[in-house]
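Run log // design_07
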């Protein structure tokens, strides 16, 4: 069992689209309530959560349906995320408000992390929010991201933010219980408790994610980004976001999901 000698003060939590949506691709308010309830508990314990959330495209599809007259896939994503992002934020804003906690939105493209003025600007923004007691909620700015300035997915955004802020912990919450040693839904496979950064993890990846789903990442990208952050001495975990109290249990050192560790 992990034994944290002191509790982390800054935790980046990344939430994937598949965890937030049901099989009809509708955002599940109960999942958001459970998530924000735990973030609020951390906040009250003087641990600042920084939330990286996917789900804008899903929230846009929920409102528009899939029947857009526009056929270009890139433009369709722009339209869905443009409509969906404020809907997603409304959910978060209202739930955080129930706990008396303020939250603010940070949308970024990869250019915002390039060294120099952009990066400084990003750091100032996060530090300003954190110093003001406002929980940052980040997503990729899908409406303006061009492929050359796009993150591979929000797993990359989460790792970059964790590094940028020198976070103590990075937690990827997804809809699987962690990294499995084979196809996650097969009877004989189980969750790996630990993965080391120099371990050959390709062998564990069963597929590249379901192309029909609305997210963009997959377990391969999560592992790559998890290893990158772990190599910078950030404690990294991958776990199922719908497991009761998963965040609080991880922070309190309980073995849950997969921990990605430096060697
Ligand atoms: N070894 C593995 N362990 C866990 N999940 C895996 C593995 N190999 C492939 N996957 C797939 O990776 C997907 C998780 O990534 P994804 O759906 O993109 O999550 P998110 O929306 O949280 O970013 C799951 O659908 C799962 O089927
Ligand atoms: N930025 C997109 C999500 C992109 C993404 O990385 O999705 P996911 O693989 O579900 O974390 C959105 O808000 O819909």
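design_07 sequence
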């Amino acid at each position: 069992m992990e034994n944290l000698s002191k509790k982390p003060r800054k935790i980046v939590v990344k939430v994937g689209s598949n965890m937030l949506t049901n099989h009809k691709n509708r955002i599940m308010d109960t999942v958001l309530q459970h998530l924000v309830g735990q973030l609020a508990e951390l906040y009250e314990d003087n641990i600042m959560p920084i939330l990286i959330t996917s789900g804008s495209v899903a929230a846009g599809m929920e409102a528009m349906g899939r029947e857009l007259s526009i056929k270009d896939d890139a433009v369709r994503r722009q339209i869905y995320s443009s409509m969906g992002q404020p809907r997603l934020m409304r959910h978060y804003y209202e739930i955080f408000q129930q706990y008396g906690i303020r939250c603010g939105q940070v949308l970024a493209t990869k250019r915002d992390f390039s060294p120099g003025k952009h990066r400084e600007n990003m750091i100032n923004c996060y530090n300003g929010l954190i110093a003001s007691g406002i929980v940052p909620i980040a997503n990729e700015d899908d409406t303006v991201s061009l492929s050359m300035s796009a993150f591979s997915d929000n797993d990359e955004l989460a790792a970059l933010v964790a590094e940028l802020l020198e976070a103590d912990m990075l937690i990827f919450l997804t809809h699987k219980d962690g990294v499995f040693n084979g196809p996650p839904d097969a009877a004989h496979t189980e969750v790996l408790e630990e993965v080391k950064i120099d371990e050959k993890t390709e062998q564990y990846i069963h597929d590249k994610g379901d192309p029909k789903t609305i997210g963009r990442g997959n377990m391969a990208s999560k592992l790559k980004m998890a290893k990158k952050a772990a190599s910078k001495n950030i404690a990294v975990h991958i776990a199922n976001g719908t497991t009761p109290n998963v965040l609080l249990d991880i922070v309190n050192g309980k073995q849950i999901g997969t921990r990605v560790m430096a060697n």
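The CA atoms of residues 20 and 43 lie 21 Å apart.
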